[in-house]
Amino acid sequence: MTALVIRGGQLLDPAAGVDAPKDIFIKDGRVAEIAAPGKLKGITGIDVLDATGLVVAPGLVDMHVHLREPGQTHKETIATGTACAAAGGFTAVAAMANTLPVNDSVETTRWMLSPERGAKVRVYPIAAATRGMKGDALNDYAALKSAGAIALSDDGLPILKESVMREALAAAARVGLCVIQHAEDTRMTQGGTMNAGPASFRLGLRGMPAEAETSLVERDIRLVNDLRDARVHLHVAHISTAGALAAVRQARRNGLRVTCEVAPHHFLLTDEHVGFYNTNAKMCPPLRSAADRDALLEGILDGVIDAIATDHAPHAVHEKEVEFDKAPNGILGLETALGLSLRWLHKEGKLPLGRVISMMSAQPAALLGMKGRGTLTVGSFGDAVIFDPKAEWTYKVSETLSKSKNTPFDGWTMQGRIRWTVSEGRVVYTHPA
Amino acid sequence: MDPSLEEIGQVLTRATALEQMDPLERARILAKRRVALLFYESSTRTRTSFELAAKSLGADTTLVSNLSSSIEKGESLKDTGLTLRALGAETIILRHNSSGAPWLLEAETRLPILNAGDGMHEHPTQALLDLRTILAHLREGATTVNEKTLEGVTVAIVGDILHSRVARSNMLLLPRLGAHVILCGPKGLLPELAAAAGPNIAIERDFEAALNRSQVINMLRIQAERLAGQQLDRDEYIAGYQLTGPRLARCAPKAIVLHPGPIIRGLEITAGVADGFQSAILEQVTNGVAIRMAVVERALSASAKGGRA
To answer: Is the per-residue pLDDT at A106 higher than 80?
Structure first.
């Protein structure tokens, strides 16, 4: 049995419409009571976090991370990845299936969920949509869901075959899961290592055209439309182009259940940040043009984009210390997402704090149907991030809890210093004061 | 990153001085200094001229090629570079099939790196030797340059622009001296956005229209090794873009013809044009040695900061 009181903070729970000073009592992993300051009843002799002057928000939910376990533990493990998550304020992370072996089985899903993995925060495995992520045969979605899978995705690879994608959407809908598509028509991106545009031409790097994303998102939306089943839910992973966003916007107007997420690097950086072949600016989808970046910011402000997700993708230092075209795709994200979002969306972009928090907690939790996450109401999980929204700090990747160091944000100024992260009533991160 | 026009002038001036110097005196300049050539792609002109250039200055050179070294066993560029440095290399001349490889090698070894061609990106010494060739023909061998030196000169770069590091280095360098660059080639080898690479670059798809306006014609080889599955109709290409004797006589009878080599006779250029009186192709090769002497000396001189020429 655990018990914890968070006292004196400003509770910001967008899902519940709360933005007020509250004390919170968490017992046995769940929120047991919320009361006006000093009004909690009958609580003695337990741990207290003094959150005076701080915001207490629901623990953040990252619907897109790569924890690299099983199989690539030199990059990250479930233990180190979730330690990063805790440091970044996340209390639930959805782990993509491109592990070794691919998580396309009940056994691997259960293995990832085993307490022996040493997860610091809650891990929700996303199972592969197709066997071995080969884009052909569907997995057993009902069995995977029973084992704990929260969604289905071949992330890292797209499901190109139309018939397979249609079947995946329909089969997932029958068991109440969404299909998360990494939208990249790989027939148009062969050999590509960055966004196709003036920068790629100048650098002599093969380009990945924006149309490769846009066209596949458009096709998938057409499939959702054709299926005529309200349960069908397509989620577009790491949206990066203005065209794909426009397609999602139109699909929503047409009443389709099509959602999308954006990663901080895509709404902050452009293909110019590749600079002189910085492999820490290499990811897939790649950093896009300024026009795409601006469209994403607009999509955040007007609400078409549902969630901020990190696409946390660790790679060992030696794997990134290679020629640009040989470097693997991906960057870290868990430790910088809140700081970047608060700085650039809230402080500079004037997006209300509650909206930022919602896009990083309640909205992704709702998308994936995570029960009791993304909100801090009585009965929900005792997941909280407690931070000073005004404090600025500098991200130093030398201090990362990840096994890897691949970030373009080393030395960047962040907003919103996290003091504690609480996962199901346990303090899983304390800022070294 | 890019050298200033003043520095380019210094290289041109020094190239001429070194070329004219007594060979025995010249061989004392870098006597027993260690220069490594690290080549991940095959090369005749660039490799040999860099090697001869370094040797002419008295340096000891060693060649490491990807096909007869531990690179074949999987040794990384970083480790190969550190190994060469530990062996005493003071500069590394790098030819690599990955764009940007010189930046990586420089960051990891902290040695001055000379870029002998990186992927589809740049081939800086080729642009300098092309410039030297152009100046010899159009500006009486001038060696000091400014932003007006090539005013009124139009240079056509023709063929496989997309995959060509020579094209990029030339199209970025020549306009800085006042030249106008016309890029000419089919869409698959010349994307529209190439014109946005820098100032004073235009695209002309019609080869003869490009020839009509040009005093210098730089023909490029189709980089079959970089086509990445792109299908190219050879006959169509020849019909549209091959530099033939009649075409040259009709449209640009006074222009000089350049080609970075290797030439594929009968494809982008006919044998008659390659061997003809307007061809400066072998002069380019000779100029390569002079230019590379100057940049190797520069890389190893205490005062010059390491860079990529």
So the answer is: yes
A374 in a structural domain: no
**Closest residue in chain A to residue B196, using alpha carbons only:** A198
Of the candidates A197, A198, A203, the beta carbon closest to that of B121 is on A203
Q: pTM above the 0.90 mark?
A: yes
Identify which of A204, A276, A318 has the shortest CB distance to residue B120.
A204
Please report how the helices A242-253 and A290-302 are oriented relative to each other, as an axis angle in degrees rounded to 10: 30
Please choose, from the candidates A286, A293, A276, A346, the residue with its C-alpha nearest in 3D space to the C-alpha of residue A311: A286
Is omega for the bond preceding A70 within 30 degrees of 0, making it cis? Answer: yes
Q: Is B86 on the interface with A (CB under 8 A)?
A: no
Query: pLDDT tens digit string along A54-86?
Result: 999 999 999 999 999 999 999 999 999 999 999
Is the Cβ pair B197, A201 closer than 8 Å? yes
CB contact under 8 A, B103 and A318: no
Q: Are residue A45 and residue A150 in the same domain, yes or no?
A: no
- Which residue of chain B comes nearest to A190, CA vs CA? B228
In angstroms, the CA B306 to CA B244 distance is: 42
Pick the closest to residue A6 from A45, A52, A44, A41 (CA basis).
A52
Specify whether A267 is located in the same domain as A360: yes
What was the pLDDT predicted at B307? 43
Domains B5-119+287-300 and B124-278 share a fold: yes
Give me the CATH code for the B5-119+287-300 domain, please: 3.40.50.1370
Nearest CB partner across the interface for A325, out of B98, B108, B197? B98
Distance CA A109, CA B47 (A): 54
Question: What is the pLDDT, as a whole number, of residue B303?
Answer: 40
Catalytic residues of A: 311
Domain residues for the domain of A426 are: 3-56+381-430
Which range, of A275-279, B231-235, B263-267, averages the lowest pLDDT? B231-235
Q: What percentage of chain B reaches a pLDDT higher than 70?
A: 97
Total domains in chain A come to: 2
| CATH architecture assigned to B124-278 | 3-Layer(aba) Sandwich (3.40)
Are A42 and A74 contained in the same domain? no
* A149 in the same domain as A76: yes
- Work out the average pLDDT over B64-82: 92
Determine the Cα–Cα distance for residues B43 and B31; give it in Å rounded to an integer. Answer: 26
Interface test with A, best of B77, B79, B97, B99 (most A CBs within 10 A): B99
Q: What is the pLDDT of residues B93-117, one digit of tens each?
A: 999 999 999 999 999 999 999 999 9
Tell me, yes or no, whether A115 lies in a domain. yes
Residue A224 lies in a domain: yes
Q: Which residue has the tokens 């570079």?
A: B81
Q: Could you give the ipTM of this predicted complex?
A: 0.93
What is the model's pLDDT at position B304? 43
Domain check: are A71 and A19 in the same one?
Answer: no
In this predicted structure, the answer to whether residue B302 has a pLDDT above a threshold of 70 is no
Inter-residue contact A51 to A6 (CB < 8 Å):
yes
> What are the extents of the domains in chain B?
5-119+287-300, 124-278
E strands, A203-280, are 207-208, 234-236, 258-262
**Any domain includes A207:** yes
Residues of chain B with Cβ-Cβ distance to A206 below 8 Å are 120, 228
Task: Look up the CATH number of the domain holding residue A139.
Answer: 3.20.20.140
Q: For the residues A281-295, what does the mean pLDDT come to?
A: 98
User: What sections of B23-120 are H helices per DSSP?
Assistant: 23-26, 45-56, 77-86, 101-109
Each residue's pLDDT tens digit, A378-400: 999 999 999 999 999 999 999 99
Any chain A CB within 8 A of the CB of B191?
Answer: yes
Statement to judge: residues A156 and A207 lie in one domain: yes
User: Is the bond leading into A101 cis (omega within 30 degrees of zero)?
Assistant: yes
Q: Is B229 a residue whose pLDDT tops 80?
A: no
Last residue of a domain, one of A343, A368, A393: A368
A244 in the same domain as A155 = yes
